[in-house]
């Protein structure tokens, strides 16, 4: 199984980006998908997760600005990011996991700068 993240880039403060992470190969439909990020010199942190039942959880720093969603048929998880701030600059990683496995994507760079 491979996770391919895309959608990162350079955006001005206040702008928006949509990240996608598509899984190739066979994965269980019973899993949790999520986005994490790691800024330079900082530890990787949770951004948002979504369960197979559609329950979501967000880091306080992104609540009200980011929205996570998933398309099970496409084995894809999305992160719609709005009102972006310079402190959102980081490499964003997607993750799929359940009790049997954990998979990480390769990361996509998001840079928020004027």
Quick tags:
mainly beta, seven-stranded mixed sheet, 54% strand, 11 strands
- Sheet with the most strands, sense and barrel status: 7 strands, mixed
Q: Could you tell me the radius of gyration in angstroms?
A: 13 Å
Structural class by secondary-structure content: mainly beta
| Approximate strand percentage | over 45%
The level of helicity is under 10%
Query: Quick one: overall form?
Result: globular
Low-pLDDT residue intervals, each spanning 5 or more residues: none
Distance between the termini: 37 Å
The pLDDT mean sits at: 95
Helix segment count? 0
List the secondary-structure elements in sequence, H or E: EEEEEEEEEEE
Quick structural gist:
The chain has 114 residues and is an all-beta fold. It contains no helices and eleven strands.
Structure description:
- This protein is globular.
- The mean pLDDT is 95.
- Strands 2, 4, 5, 6, 9, 10 and 11 form a seven-stranded mixed sheet that branches.
- With 114 residues, it is mainly beta.
- The protein contains no helices and eleven strands.
Secondary structure: elements and pairs:
Elements lengths: L1 E5 L2 E3 L5 E8 L7 E7 L6 E7 L4 E3 L7 E6 L4 E6 L8 E8 L4 E3 L3 E5 L2
Parallel strand pairs: 2-11
Antiparallel strand pairs: 1-3, 3-8, 4-5, 4-9, 5-6, 7-8, 9-10, 9-11
